[in-house]
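Input:
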Amino acid sequence: MSFTGIFHFFTNSPCDAAEPWQLGSQDAATPMMQGIIDLHHDIFFFLILILVFVSRILVRALWHFHSKKNPIPQRIVHGTTIEILRTIFPSIIPMFIAIPSFALLYSMDEVVVDPAMTIKAIGHQWYRSYEYSDYNSSDEQSLTFDSYTIPEDDPELGQSRLLEVDNRVVVPAKTHLRIIVTSADVPHSWAVPSSGVKCDAVPGRLNQISISVQREGVYYGQCSEICGTNHASIVVEAVSRKDYGSRVSNQLIPQTGEA
Amino acid sequence: MAEIELKTAPADFRFPTTNQSRHCFTRYIEFHRCLAAKGDGSAECEKFAKYYRSLCPGEWVDRWNEQRENGIFPGPL
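Output:
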C-alpha cells in the first residue's frame, strides 16, 4: 500500500504491479491470493521463531567457546530427556505449518460454484490473444483481440515501462471466472501476482484456472516462461469492472456488425 | 445497455483437473454426435455447441472442422 502525500489520508492505492525494491507480495485481489499471503504470514511466524532460537544457541555456543573464559569445555555426550524433546518438538512445528498449508491447497481445488465466464488466454510470440466465446452463436468468435505490450519508446506519461498493453483483458468483478490458458507456438506462462495466478501456457494443452477478482482495479503481470527474444515484454493486464456488461456490448456490437 | 447474462460451460466432474484439453475435445465430439443422432440444426445440440465454443480455442475448432471436412478427424464422431 502506498500513500500518496500527506493530504491523501483516505486514498488507497493498492499495489497491483511490481514496485522497485519491493520485498513483500502485491496486494491481494482474489481470495486465493489472500490465502497465500495469510499462509505466508503463518509460516513466517514459525520461521522467525526457529531462526531466533537457533541463532541464539549458535551465538551462545560460540560466545562460551572462549579458552580464557571457559578453559574446561564440557564433555556431556548423552541426555535422554533433551534428545527426546529436541526430536519431538521440531516435528510438531511442521505440523503447525502443514495445517494451514493443506487447508489452502485443497480449498484451491474445490469447485464451489460453476464459473460464470470463460476467457481463453492464448500466448504467442510475442503477444497475447484473448477470446471471449461465451456469447457467439456460431463457430466464429464473438470477441477476440490481441494484446501487445506498448514498446519502450512509446508509453504515455504515467505508464509503466514494459508493463502496459494496448488492449487489456476486461473482467467483471466478483464473478467466478474460468481462465483457459494455452499457447499457439512455444510455452509461455500467464501470471498475475495480485490475483495469485501463474499458469503455464503449453501448446496443445488447455490449462484451467479459477479466479474471482474481488475488487476493481488494474492488475499487471508478466510472461513467466521464457519464450524467446521478447519474453520480457509479454504482459497480462486485467481490469475488473462493474459495468462489464456495457463494456463488452460496446465491443461486441462492432464485431457482430462486421461478422 | 443490455444486461449480458453470464453463463458458460459448467465445471464437468469428468475432468476435475487442471488439464481441460480432453474436456474441450469431448464437448466437440458430443456436439457432432448429437448432430448425427438428432439431425442438423437441432436445438438440443446447441447446448454442446456453446460448451465447446467456450472452452476450445478458435484455432483448434477451425482445424477440427477442416479435418472433419477432409474426413481425417481423429476422434470417435
